[in-house]
Write a structure and sequence with these properties.
The chain has 315 residues and is an alpha/beta fold. It has ten helices and nine strands. 30% of the residues lie in helices and 14% in strands. It is an enzyme of class 2 (transferase).
């Protein structure tokens, strides 16, 4: 499987910080539900099944099969060196610097990181999972990986477990606590929020007020956590653009030798120009220079990078 070849955070970012997003007032009952789940101590998740229910952060825990994860091409956080680990070190460093306030510009909600693409199949789920695994392996970092691609969920399957209830169920049920749908793992620093059940209004739920409130609460009451969203492709639905607007940082996954420049330009035009955003070139077979994607996007509209069939990662 071809891995991520290079992370390129070359898109210019305005130094002007955009005004804070206007979040509708949160009804007291709903706010209490969210706060109980995210306004928690900064220690790692407690996953021991022997503890009383009141002391658990999540209602469910799964054991990730690291050998299965390794065989699927994903990053395994162990002491062995590998090319994919080095690649994701390059990808995550600028993101973590922005979270820590050490980046080139300040942004709102920098700990909310959306991973998306222009079209489906370019490797965004593969990238989101690897990014979460890589950051979760760091000291003093904890990660919540959210499958927000609710029409085509893939995070739970990629990590090797059944998603069951998740984000959709929480957004649809005002009586449900977030802890009911969070899934802790045998990596104490990694928690997963699956996409959840099918719902006839799933797209509307993703673009609704409850999602806005949830992301705002995650950022403000969960400031020491990195929240990574596997987001829908930007050109797939209007809801994907709304979700992207709630993120502090956006990672755009581009498939080497297949993605059209015109599609990438169109997708970028949908993002807030003051958002922190950058590229990950996925499935590349050759080493490239940092200028492969960059200022030359202004020309060659519609040029195709190649005709290789999709291979490797999914998303």
């Amino acid at each position: 499987m071809d891995s991520i070849e290079k992370a390129m955070f070359g898109r210019s970012v305005s130094a002007v910080t955009r005004p804070p997003a206007v979040i509708p007032p949160v009804p007291q009952s709903r706010e209490d539900v969210i706060e109980r789940a995210v306004n928690l101590p900064s220690s790692a998740p407690i996953t021991s099944p022997n503890l009383p229910e009141a002391h658990r952060r999540t209602r469910r825990s799964v054991t990730l099969d690291m050998e299965r994860i390794r065989a699927s091409g994903l990053l395994v956080p162990d002491s062995q060196r590998s090319r994919i680990k080095e690649e994701y070190r390059q990808i995550k460093r600028p993101l973590l610097m922005n979270v820590d306030g050490k980046g080139a510009a300040k942004v709102d909600h920098p700990n909310l990181i959306g991973v998306t693409s222009a079209r489906a199949g370019e490797g965004k789920t593969f990238t989101a999972c690897n990014l979460a695994l890589s950051i979760a392996s760091e000291r003093n970092r904890t990660v919540l990986l959210v499958d927000a691609d609710i029409l085509r969920p893939a995070v739970a399957k990629m990590l090797g477990f059944e998603g069951d209830q998740g984000l959709v169920d929480f957004l649809a049920d005002d009586q449900m606590e977030l802890a009911d749908v969070l899934v802790s793992t045998n990596m104490s620093s990694l928690t997963v929020l699956p996409a959840g059940s099918k719902h006839h209004l799933s797209a509307e739920l993703l673009a609704g007020d409850n999602m806005r409130r949830l992301t705002a609460e995650m950022s403000q009451r969960y400031p020491d956590r990195i929240v990574i969203f596997d987001a829908p492709p930007l050109l797939a639905t209007t809801e994907a653009r709304i979700l992207a607007s709630l993120m502090g940082q956006v990672v755009m996954v581009v498939e080497a030798e297949r993605t059209l420049r015109a599609h990438v330009k169109e997708a970028l035009s949908l993002l807030n120009p003051n958002q922190m955003s950058g590229f990950v070139l996925n499935k590349s077979r050759d080493l490239i220079t940092s200028g492969y994607y960059g200022k030359d996007y202004d020309g060659h509209d519609g040029q195709e990078f190649g005709t290789l069939p999709p291979a490797g990662s999914i998303g």
